[in-house]
Amino acid sequence: MATGHFKEGIAGGRLSSEQYADNFSDLHPPLDHHEALVESDRCYFCYDAPCMNACPTSIDIPLFIRQISTGNPIGSAKTIFDQNILGGMCARVCPTETLCEEVCVREVAEGKPVQIGRLQRYATDVAMSENKQFYPRPEPTGRTVAVVGAGPAGLAAAHRLARHGHDVTILEARPKAGGLNEYGIAAYKSVDNFAQAEVDYVTSIGGIDIQNGKALGRDYQLSDLIRNYDAVFLGMGLGGVNALRADGEDADGVTNAVEFIAELRQASDLSGLPVGRRVVVIGGGMTAIDAAVQSKLLGAEEVTICYRRGQEHMNASGFEQDLAAANGVTIRHWLQPKRVIAEGGKVSGIELEYTAMNGDKLAGTGETLTLVADQVFKAIGQSFVPAALNGSGASIELEAGRIKVDAEGRTSLAKVWAGGDCIFGGDDLTVSAVAQGRDAAESINRALTSNGRA
Amino acid sequence: MADIRNNFVGIKSPNPFWLASAPPTDKAYNVIRAFKAGWGGVVWKTLGEEGPPVVNVNGPRYGAIWGADRRLLGLNNIELITDRDLQVNLREIKQVKKDWPDRAIVVSLMVPCVEDAWKAILPVVEETEADGIELNFGCPHGMSERGMGAAVGQVPEYIEMVVRWCKQNTRMPVITKLTPNITDVRKPARAAHSGGTDAVSLINTINSITGVDLDSFAPQPTIDGKGSHGGYCGPAVKPIAMNMVAEIARDPETHGLPISGIGGITTWRDAAEFMALGAGNVQVCTAAMTYGFKIVQEMIAGLENWMDEKGHASLDDIVGRATPNVTDWQYLNLNYVAKAHIDQDACIKCGRCHIACEDTSHQAITSMVDGKRHFEVIEAECVGCNLCVNVCPVENCITMEPLAAGAMDQRTGKPVSPVYANWTTHPNNPMAKVAAE
């Protein structure tokens, strides 16, 4: 039997402790002072800058970069936080290559955009390391708002509401705040417990009370919140994981990728985290890439992503796909899971069926392929679980399985707003959730201050 | 192959690149290294009169300004003339000249403004068999407080007087180095000419403070909490220096007076530009202090390649070629019309041309056409100012296109006149020399 790195089955301790530390170090190391000056000088300070228009939170990117270049990182951080109080995390996890940096005129001109994400991290790191707080807490208004979920949308909403003087209570089902920032981001994108540091930074404005272990539908009902608070913001994200709809997916060794990612982020000792020798990841988005790359970094020998459509259809950005390839992950296309093969209840392989477009519909071709695997990750998307919402009172209107909101984030229920992944029209991006939380908070504030009660 | 040998007021050197009088030419060790690297000549750092040498500060002697990647754009210094013993310098000069006979060695001098002082120093310099002397009338700091350097250079009468003393007391060619810290550089040049100078060299450094430490509120460079204006040099001063060279070259009173061009010369191209404006050779300092002596190899090869490419056989073919094209504003052709043109294939859509024109000029560049981000010149508004060209980050993306005679200028609604016409004859000019027809 092979041992160490090549242990059969799902096992931990495949690598040395140095290898774990190296593999899970910062994906994009921070720019130092001089690097930041040089990079900021590359910015052309465009008129009506395309990067700014591409940012879901509309950060004034040319201005914050110019502030870095003039030796004013604190002013730069304020420019960022004015629009996006989670600018620190967004600097780390935004797929900038499909947002601001994709439209940077230098990307268009020379294929080498200004590194906006890393510059944003530089400025926000300076401000956060000094715990520089830009927004004084005003006199409390006496208005109270409940926020369900301490993820990016909820935190952004809470901070903006606190800035307006309202008292916010965040109810979070998990033991820690941060949402996907804490539980859903690949470890090498957010090192040194940054998500919790950011939660502390955001909440230190005052007037925000986070209560952990409070799950909607289990510990309280939406109707309780509507009754007890002046307004409610729902930002609970997606609770469900889509099934493979393949035979045998209950076998031991078939895991939800999001759980694996969360477990990895919470692990204090990566060598204790078991991973398969041969791993197959089903899916084509960021979650699939995160799970696959991290499996490889934990010491898996073979990691294969199988996606049922073509490369051009993958939700994962080109950068993410390249990252996977650079880490030795094989990405295969036009393959859908058919049957999980198990021996003694444990996964030993997966049978996949080739697919093709039949007109505009995807269909199996009948040809199959079997990959040896001792671990299979499901990463084919998450779904909103509305059950918790409808435990009491009037039911909230949904659209395509998610909460329906208007342009200001208002739901079909009076006094109830929503934002982030749980709403219809969300795009699974941290930065979009921040924008939605922020804008809903402004709507709530308008409602609370114009006529007293929402 | 182009011949770049230089003969400047009879001083011969294998190329026109000399090191200026400055720290790099303070002693034999440096000068020998420079000659080994290929420099055509040096102006030995300024000697003072016999006696205890001057002393320099022992804190920072230089200040600088930089581009974003610490590219040195401008340097400032508060070093004085040589702080080494006169006899040591003279011995070294003599030895180096003996060992490097094909290279030019000119000795920079600064002694008090009395004839006896000059009479004393000239023979001992002559004895070294140096090729010539350069009178330091430019040093803007320290020495000027003692009535030397720029204190002389700012008074044309003193310049003329000292130059005359020197011409009367030495057989060596005399080059008079001018300070830019003066209102009209033609005045000291004329004075030097009247005194009989063989040439002028310019510019010396410009009075400057490179920065202020915002914690201590002290000017930089800071010596124990205080600072003094130093001499500014390097790439940032080149345009100022070139104008002064051109002013002297085209001044009827000094026309033909040999000029050694100095001021921010960093590349062969800089040197060629100075020479085109009338400099017979060039002197370099900051570029060597930034990159070391090796840069001369690029200068030599670059100048030769350019001359070969353009068919210029010797330096005589290029010196002063641009001088006739430097004129007064009043003689510029007011009937010449150019319009900016944006190459849409080259445009990266940063919008800088638009906002510069919109905010600060003539509202002649679009930002949006048919709902799309699009930058295009509105010819009816464009005055041809060239600002957009200067702010565009892409070379040759925006160009100034002259309108042919007869073409309609959409801004004025009139066809472009084929006739040259300038301000001196313009009807709006109350001093017009010829009445408008």
TrEMBL record, chain A:
GO terms for molecular function: dihydropyrimidine dehydrogenase (NAD+) activity; iron-sulfur cluster binding. It is an enzyme of class 1 (oxidoreductase). Pfam families: Fer4_20, Pyr_redox_2. Transmembrane segments: none annotated. Keywords: Oxidoreductase. Residues 144-437 form the FAD/NAD(P)-binding domain. It catalyses: 5,6-dihydrouracil + NAD(+) = uracil + NADH + H(+); 5,6-dihydrothymine + NAD(+) = thymine + NADH + H(+). Residues 22-131 form the Dihydroprymidine dehydrogenase domain. Its EC number is 1.3.1.1. Involved in pyrimidine base degradation. Catalyzes physiologically the reduction of uracil to 5,6-dihydrouracil (DHU) by using NADH as a specific cosubstrate. It also catalyzes the reverse reaction and the reduction of thymine to 5,6-dihydrothymine (DHT). Heterotetramer of 2 PreA and 2 PreT subunits. PANTHER family: DIHYDROPYRIMIDINE DEHYDROGENASE [NADP(+)]. This is dihydrouracil dehydrogenase (NAD(+)).
From TrEMBL, chain B:
GO terms for molecular function: dihydropyrimidine dehydrogenase (NAD+) activity; iron-sulfur cluster binding; metal ion binding. One of its GO terms (cellular component) is cytoplasm. PROSITE patterns: 4FE4S_FER_1 (PS00198), 4FE4S_FER_2 (PS51379). Pfam families: DHO_dh (PF01180), Fer4_21 (PF14697). It comes from the Bacteria. Residues 338-371, 373-403 form the 4Fe-4S ferredoxin-type domain. InterPro entries: 4Fe4S_Fe-S-bd, 4Fe4S_Fe_S_CS, Aldolase_TIM, Dihydroorotate_DH_cat. Keywords: Iron, Iron-sulfur, Metal-binding, Oxidoreductase. Its EC number is 1.3.1.1. It catalyses: 5,6-dihydrouracil + NAD(+) = uracil + NADH + H(+); 5,6-dihydrothymine + NAD(+) = thymine + NADH + H(+). Heterotetramer of 2 PreA and 2 PreT subunits. NCBIfam families: PRK08318.1. Belongs to the dihydropyrimidine dehydrogenase family. Involved in pyrimidine base degradation. Catalyzes physiologically the reduction of uracil to 5,6-dihydrouracil (DHU) by using NADH as a specific cosubstrate. It also catalyzes the reverse reaction and the reduction of thymine to 5,6-dihydrothymine (DHT). This is dihydrouracil dehydrogenase (NAD(+)). The lineage of its organism: Bacteria, Pseudomonadati, Pseudomonadota, Alphaproteobacteria, Hyphomicrobiales.
